[in-house]
Amino acid sequence: MYEVKPLTKKEVPGISEKTMTIHHGKLYTGYVNKANEILEKLKALRASGKAEGNTTYSELRALKDGETFAINGIYLHENYFDLLGGEGDSTKAPELSAAMTKKWGSVDTIVNWFSTCAMATRGWSILCWDPYIGELRHYNGDAHNQGVWGCIPIIAIDVYEHAYFIDHGSDRKSYLEAFWKNLDWAKAEEIYKKAKEVKL
Asked: Among 176, 196, 184, 177, which Cα is nearest to 98's?
């Protein structure tokens, strides 16, 4: 079963306490609760022997679709919240910064590209470690259950409107600037170091 992780930073410059409280307390917590509910329903359906495998609609199909949406919603939000509250200083992530520079030319180059991609997606923009090829990759996803299986999120930016509309209205660009100014690069470095040990 999944548990709600506490919100360590309730407010950061450019992202208000109201936004963070609603985002964490209602949306993220809702994914945790719904994931646990779905898992219980799947367990009961499996035990009943009455599951119907219909690709148009069935209770099983709906639950399995909701399962990936809710669980990826948990993981992506936990990464997002964990990385807010820093000083936006990429020098605190020397290994990650070096890997970004090696692949894309500089940290600024990939951050600018990351932000441009974040303007072009409906849900998430994510820097990942791909353990199959042993390198960093960047992906967008319009929904929680879009992405590349096996990739480990290093930096996940939530760009659904609930993440910024209270504070920035429709100005997503100013929200992204606030995100980067508050990114805890030291925590991103920790995630990167653990992730790059995974090789498939």
From this structure: 196
